[in-house]
Amino acid sequence: MRVLGIETSCDETGVAIYDSEQGLLADTLYSQVKMHAEYGGVVPELASRDHVRRLLPLIRECFSQANLPLGDVDAVAYTAGPGLIGALMVGASTGRAMALAWDKPAIGVHHMEGHLLAPMLEETPPEFPFVALLVSGGHTQLVRVDGIGEYQLLGESLDDAAGEAFDKAAKMLGLDYPGGPEVARLAQQGTPGRFKFPRPMTDRPGVDFSFSGLKTFTLNTANAHRDENGKLDQQTIADIAYAFEEAVVETLAIKCRRALQQTGMKQLVIAGGVSANRHLRERLETMVGKERAKLFYARPEFCTDNGAMIAFAGCQRLMAGQQSDLTILAKPRWPMDTLEAIR
Ligand code: KG4
Ligand code: ZN
Question: Going by CA atoms, what residue is nearest to atom 7 of ligand 1?
């Protein structure tokens, strides 16, 4: 089965074509990051309008990349939520309309299920069951995954998501949006040990997270080191970035280890934008080694938002006979454990 996948839930327009026999045939992306950077974060109305501008040209480009006539797919998958409602509506209405025009089925895909399954696009995919750490701009969750749609939430962030904390810490340090990659880049020049940040909620049992305290800690540390003009020197910025990243990475690693021990599972999948973080990958590789477990993640461009993960996830559900009706489905909030299982 060949599926066109459309992702427009936030600030990236992603379109891809996935074929269950031949794999990924085309993958295109337009990132709005530069447009939003000026405002220090995503401006929802601007995001929706830009998806309108970019989506149709990207769909055309995708078919030409795959060497296929326009519309030569068996079905269309689009992100139906969670995300920004206006942005979602662009992908949902376009995807739904194309499927109708081409007389093909369509399916609304859960954005986080897309992230979760993205590592399955790689050469050595994980096999069910496994534990997944979902770390994006909007979510930080540990999930037990027994199959597609069989998700049991083990723990989640009680406040900010990990990616959101990266973005906010970056802003406090005067870095550009999105902050995650910027903090990670600067952390490489940081001095280990100059600052020590807390590891929130690691001193009590369970696998829930809290990242808002790290934000305050970042702000206080930064304020204590500003010069008379309110500026921070480059080395101090790098040292704070290092301490912040180290605290997030270690906290995530501690909770992942607990989740593996608690479930007895030997496979850990990490997905979502923050799973692109090199330091996190290295730390988790060491941890799973000690646990005699294995770590799985997607290539960096499939950790952040993309169309390929939506085409792939949609394809799995469509092959199992699922599809959405003619209603244009867009849900800004959509708990992942309410999804239907496929057998
Ligand atoms: O999955 P994603 O592209 O979008 C959402 O679904 O939210 O995740 C975006 C988030 C942003 O907060 C961004 O700062 C973070 O992922 N991120 C990173 C890195 N790359 C992206 N955080 C830390 N290190 C990175 N290398
Ligand atoms: Zn995402």
Answer: 137
Beta strands in the chain (DSSP E): 2-7, 12-19, 23-31, 75-81, 106-110, 130-135, 140-147, 150-156, 267-271, 294-296
Q: Is 304 in the pocket of ligand 1 (CB under 6 A)?
A: yes
Longest dimension (CA), the chain: 66
Task: Compute the distance from residue 56 Cα to the ligand 2 centre, in Å.
Answer: 21
Structure-block tokens of residue 31: 């990132």
Q: Residue 261 CB: number of other CB atoms within 10 A?
A: 12
Amino acid 343: pLDDT: 77
> How far is Cα 24 from Cα 309, in angstroms, rounded to an integer?
10
Q: What is the pLDDT of residues 299-322, one digit of tens each?
A: 999 999 999 999 999 999 999 999
Vertex 59 angle, CA 135 and 303, to 5°:
15
Residue 272 Cβ contacting ligand 1 at under 6 Å: yes
CA dist 169 and 265 (Å) reads 33
As a whole number of angstroms, the distance between CA 248 and CA 133 comes to: 13
Closest-lying ligand 1 atom to the alpha carbon of residue 280 = 24
Q: How do beta strands 294-296 and 23-31 pair?
A: unpaired
Taking the C-alpha atoms of residue 108 and residue 78, their distance in angstroms, rounded to an integer, is 5
Q: What are the two backbone dihedrals, phi and then psi, of residue 342, each rounded to the nearest 5 degrees?
A: -115, 145
Cα 296 to ligand 1 centroid, rounded to whole Å: 17
For the CA of 83, the nearest atom of ligand 1: 6
CA distance 42 to 33: 8
Q: What is the pLDDT of residues 81-120, one digit of tens each?
A: 999 999 999 999 999 999 999 999 999 999 999 999 999 9
